[in-house]
Design a protein that fits this description.
Elements lengths: L1 H21 L10 H8 L11 H11 L5 H11 L1 H20 L6 E9 L2 E9 L2 H72 L5 H36 L23 H11 L1 H22 L6 E8 L9 E8 L8 H66 L5 H35 L8 H9 L2
Antiparallel strand pairs: 1-2, 3-4
Length: about 450
């Protein structure tokens, strides 16, 4: 019996020692953010009130007109919602570390005394069941931590896309506001000239009313442009984590069109190697495959208990017999077929969902690329054809006006047309950069279309 007890103790030590040695893992150096930065290629940090260096870097970004890359960086450092998501990653890591901690040992003591006789029992023990389940608990929390890093990475990319789109819309709105103001001033001058000529009897009431009506419409368009400019600035301010949109300045104009366009093959190759949602589904499939293998391995015997035991046989005063107890489940009524079938169905479900997600991603990338190319062609057409043509028409009209072959109202009308074509080019340029941001995001995860891009698509532009 002593040999049997020694065997049980040795077996228990052999089982628990590897767990004890592997349970010493602590917190990572940067709370999992290193991997997030590697996945997203973004400088993501946890904001801290005591981090004076990061606060100074943030202020330096606001000290100059905020470019699109600087706006994205500022948001990644200061957006409170993202900081909450970073804290959630810290919670997931804390759960992982806790799952890998050894349970505290227990100490029990019994002390009795009667007429000078003592009975003292002292027990120092460990929860063996916690040792046995620790690898499974730690593996589950590791999967949760990995999933949290994937989710945070996707949230970082989505925030970056939203900031890019908001920045493009805000800069375009400010440019459009400038041209709307010029149109209104031109219309105001024409209306005033028409009023004077009508007062002198050189114009009819109908002609004066037409110019006055155009001025009224131009003033309303200017008010709409101001409203759009305020809304876009406030939207960008919220994404930056700023309470007041007056705290930042924007460039006066959008970037020019790029000379070279991205090729579709390159886009598709990058998408299927970088998309975080597809990578997350692959990790889920791997975990389910391991779970399916475990379920099949434990199909017939999934409960096995072993431990020391003592038995009393005979009168009360006789000594206990010591030995080993062994118990396992008999697969008489439940052969484990249902559990295996369920595990196979869960794996098949995830496999088909992953296949559909791959099809959806491929379609999304193609659509984003087609919109990107179309927006580039439209903006190029405005830049190379329409705007120069309207400029030449205005120049010719100016020459004819100087030669008294054209009236002042006709010249003002041509000037308004030229300003309108420039404003249309700004809108086309805005739509291109919005499409470019959506294409970039579609190569890394599910992309969302901005309101301006949705409106453009609805117009069939």
């Amino acid at each position: 019996m002593k040999l049997a007890m020694k065997t049980v103790i040795n077996a228990t030590v052999c089982l628990t020692l590897p767990i004890m040695l592997s349970a010493c893992a602590g917190f990572s150096r940067d709370g999992g953010l290193d991997e997030v930065r590697s996945l997203t290629h973004k400088d993501v940090r946890a904001q801290s009130a005591s981090d004076a260096g990061l606060q100074q870097q943030s202020q330096d970004l606001l000290a100059q007109p905020l470019g699109v890359d600087e706006a994205v960086q500022y948001a990644l450092w200061n957006h409170k919602g993202l900081q909450a998501d970073i804290a959630a990653l810290g919670i997931a890591e804390a759960d992982l570390v806790q799952a890998g901690r050894l349970p505290n040992p227990g100490f029990n003591m019994l002390y009795t005394r009667n007429n000078g006789e003592y009975k003292i029992e002292q027990v120092f023990g460990f929860n063996i069941l916690a040792f046995a389940t620790m690898p499974m608990a730690k593996a589950a929390e590791q999967r949760h931590f990995d999933a949290a890093k994937q989710r945070l990475s996707l949230q970082v990319l989505q925030l970056a896309q939203s900031v890019r789109q908001a920045w493009v819309e805000a800069v375009a709105a400010e440019q459009s506001l400038i041209y709307a103001q010029q149109v209104m001033q031109s219309a105001e001058a024409a209306a005033e000239l028409a009023r004077r000529m009508h007062a002198q009897g050189n114009w009819s009431k109908l002609e004066q009313a037409r110019e006055q009506s155009f001025y009224a419409d131009a003033a309303l368009d200017y008010a709409h442009a101001r409203d759009l400019q305020m809304q876009s600035r406030e939207h960008l301010s919220r994404l930056l984590g700023l309470g007041d949109s007056a705290h930042f300045r924007l460039p006066q104009r959008l970037p020019d069109l790029p000379q070279a366009e991205t090729e579709l093959l390159q886009v598709e190759q990058q998408a299927f190697s970088q998309r975080l949602d597809l990578q997350a589904r692959k990790l889920e499939l791997q975990a389910l495959a391991k779970q399916l293998g475990l379920t099949k391995a434990t199909r017939f015997i999934n409960v096995l208990e072993i431990g020391p035991a003592r038995v009393l046989e005979g009168r009360r005063g006789e000594a206990y017999k010591k030995g080993v107890a062994l118990g396992f489940e008999l697969p008489i009524f439940d052969s484990g077929a249902a559990r295996v079938k369920r595990a196979e169905a869960v794996y098949s479900q995830a496999l088909e969902a992953t296949a559909q997600a791959t099809v959806d991603a491929e379609s999304e990338v193609r659509l984003a690329y087609q919109q990107y190319r179309l927006r580039h062609e439209m903006a190029t057409h405005y830049q190379q054809e329409i705007v120069p043509l309207r400029q030449r028409i205005l120049q010719e009209s100016q020459l004819r006006y100087n030669g008294m072959l054209l009236s002042a109202f006709e010249l003002l009308s041509e000037a308004r047309g030229q300003i309108h074509s420039v404003n249309q080019y700004i809108n086309a340029l805005r739509d291109f950069w919005l499409a470019e941001a959506a294409l970039t995001m579609s190569m890394q995860g599910p992309a969302s279309m901005s309101p301006s891009a949705q409106a453009s698509s609805g117009r069939g532009e």
